Amino acid sequence: MANYKEAPLASRPKTLDPAEYFNLSPDYRRAEEKRAALRAQLKRQYLEQLNNPHRKELIEDPALTRWTHARTNNNYFRPTAKTSLIGGLFGVLPLFVLYVVFKTDRDKREAKIKAGTYERPYKLST
Amino acid sequence: MLKVLIPTIMLFPTIWLTSPKWLWTTTTAHSLLIASISLMWLKWTSEAGWTSSNTYLATDPLSTPLLVLTCWLLPLMILASQNHINPEPINRQRSYITLLASLQTFLIMAFGATEIIMFYIMFEATLIPTLIIITRWGNQAERLNAGTYFLFYTLAGSLPLLVALLLLQQSTGTLSMLVLQYSQPLQLNSWGHMIWWAGCLIAFLVKMPLYGVHLWLPKAHVEAPVAGSMVLAAVLLKLGGYGMMRMMIMLDPLSKELAYPFIILALWGIIMTGSICLRQTDLKSLIAYSSVSHMGLVAAGILIQTPWGFSGAIILMIAHGLVSSALFCLANTAYERTHSRTMMLARGLQMIFPLTAMWWFTANLANLALPPLPNLMGELMIITTLFNWSPWTILLTGLGTLITAGYSLYMFLMTQRGPTPNHIMGLQPFHTREHLLMALHLIPVILLVAKPELMWGWCY
């Protein structure tokens, strides 16, 4: 820690900051110890399950469960201005745009076929 | 027809009278025998269109590939279900196989029907075993919701069809497809006729499913047990396509104007559902949305009513049926081992199951329509005929193909490559039964590369 010199493109990382390790209040130290104890408990729980030779099932990961629940159950959708705009822009507008595009294209072709001026560009049997 | 139908009905006494030790062996063998007999239908004997010995059940080049697919799928479903049903009491196992066999009977009668009303009755009848399979043997609590969505979406779509069919019977005096194909074109020029047109098609569009009304499909496919997912993806969706192809004959010339919204929904749906696939975390949900995407292509191909469109639709239906069912079987093998459908969990499987990685690879390549597999044949025919219909569609279908390749590769890389989680233990090695299941799914796909004329429908 004493040897680290800051450079123009390399600022001092938090882990090498002396303020993190010296001049800490006792309250802060107690809180950190409690947190470390909780972490160690969780880690011990996990390692016990991991190294249990009789375990046959998955270790349940609550974070994964929460993540999959959040990703799959989108019950928190609220129609706001932004979501309505996105929904309209990607869900409703393309349908109308495509209708206009296809209809005009097909009508032009129908008119040409009826007038007899349509030259078939490809010899397809479709 | 009867040479397949009667053995299928005889499957019921087989199920209930065999001793418990031989139940699965006997039913699998019996259904394999039915499947091999059904291959005889592929020999198209009559040049007059329909092959039949009576006027009620007949096969023609459109229904034959679908019938063979249905018959082929029953032994595969029984093979796939063997593991997860085995712990249950014997009578419940028998009921499960009875449901699969009854589904088979209804499907054979549906695809072989010549009277449209019989097709309708069988179409509705298939809902009941499927509903029971999903709601009774599904694995999560959401299965009730899934069953409700499945039942009511399909029923709500098909009630107008009943009315439309009765009206058709009133006006033409017959509902036999053998007769209707020669009838005079109907005078369709009023608003009432347009509603009749919509009524004829909505049931099948909901079943296909079309993009706007596809909400039942991810729920039903995900919550169903493996045999339910297989039969849903492989055959029940094709009932919608088959019904549409049969009804389109009578619906001209209104279809030229009225089909636009549905074609547009189908094409836009390819892109939307493909994009949703890229964001899925649940493996079965990804495969379900990919089914919607492929069926959107089929729906567009059918709705533009060209010969290539129909051929492409049939080919894609058969190929997608086999491949989608194969993917659901693979997803089930992962589910049976980890009891979770999360893709992040069952990662890096190539390291522990190398032979299965080959099946995953082939199935995913087939899903993204790799040449020379029939998936590409169907997709290319539909894309070409859509391009001929209107060149602007190539933007949508091309983007759709790109996204399909994207999510198929995503599925493969997510499940096979990457670091194997090291807290997953006790994964049973792959059973021979599961390898056999995958082989029986993918070998027909590869064989169809050699003789695709079996699937081309009337254009052969």
Automatic annotation (TrEMBL), chain A:
Function field: Accessory subunit of the mitochondrial membrane respiratory chain NADH dehydrogenase (Complex I), that is believed not to be involved in catalysis. Complex I functions in the transfer of electrons from NADH to the respiratory chain. The immediate electron acceptor for the enzyme is believed to be ubiquinone.
Record's subcellular location: Mitochondrion inner membrane
Protein name per the record: NADH dehydrogenase [ubiquinone] 1 beta subcomplex subunit 4
Subunit architecture: Complex I is composed of 45 different subunits.
Similarity comment text for this entry: Belongs to the complex I NDUFB4 subunit family.
Oxidoreductase found in the keyword field: no
Record has Membrane as a keyword: yes
GO CC terms: mitochondrial inner membrane
InterPro entries to which the protein is assigned, alphabetical: NADH_UbQ_OxRdtase_NDUFB4_su (IPR009866)
Chief localization: mitochondrion
Transmembrane segments: 84-102
Membrane topology classification: Single-pass membrane protein
Organism per entry: Sinocyclocheilus grahami (Dianchi golden-line fish)
Pfam assignment, any one: NDUF_B4
Gene symbol of the encoding locus: ndufb4
PANTHER family, alphabetized: NADH DEHYDROGENASE [UBIQUINONE] 1 BETA SUBCOMPLEX SUBUNIT 4, NADH-UBIQUINONE OXIDOREDUCTASE B15 SUBUNIT
Record key words, sorted: Electron transport, Membrane, Mitochondrion, Mitochondrion inner membrane, Respiratory chain, Transmembrane, Transmembrane helix, Transport
From TrEMBL, chain B:
GO cellular component labels: mitochondrial membrane
InterPro entries: NADH4_N (IPR000260), NADH_Q_OxRdtase_chainM/4 (IPR010227), NADH_UbQ_OxRdtase (IPR003918), ND/Mrp_TM (IPR001750)
A GO biological-process term: ATP synthesis coupled electron transport
Reactions catalysed according to its record: a ubiquinone + NADH + 5 H(+)(in) = a ubiquinol + NAD(+) + 4 H(+)(out)
Annotated transmembrane regions: 21-42, 62-81, 93-111, 117-137, 149-168, 194-217, 224-243, 258-279, 286-304, 310-331, 352-370, 390-413, 434-450
EC number: 7.1.1.2
Membrane topology: Multi-pass membrane protein
Keyword Mitochondrion: yes
Domain NADH:quinone oxidoreductase/Mrp antiporter transmembrane: 113-404
Subcellular location: Mitochondrion membrane
Coiled coil regions in record: none
GO molecular function (one): NADH dehydrogenase (ubiquinone) activity
The entry's keywords: Electron transport, Membrane, Mitochondrion, NAD, Respiratory chain, Translocase, Transmembrane, Transmembrane helix, Transport, Ubiquinone
Every NADH:ubiquinone oxidoreductase chain 4 N-terminal domain range: 1-110
PANTHER family attached to this UniProt entry: NADH-UBIQUINONE OXIDOREDUCTASE CHAIN 4
Similarity annotation: Belongs to the complex I subunit 4 family.
Role this protein plays: Core subunit of the mitochondrial membrane respiratory chain NADH dehydrogenase (Complex I) which catalyzes electron transfer from NADH through the respiratory chain, using ubiquinone as an electron acceptor. Essential for the catalytic activity and assembly of complex I.
Name of the protein this chain belongs to: NADH-ubiquinone oxidoreductase chain 4
Organism: Sinocyclocheilus grahami
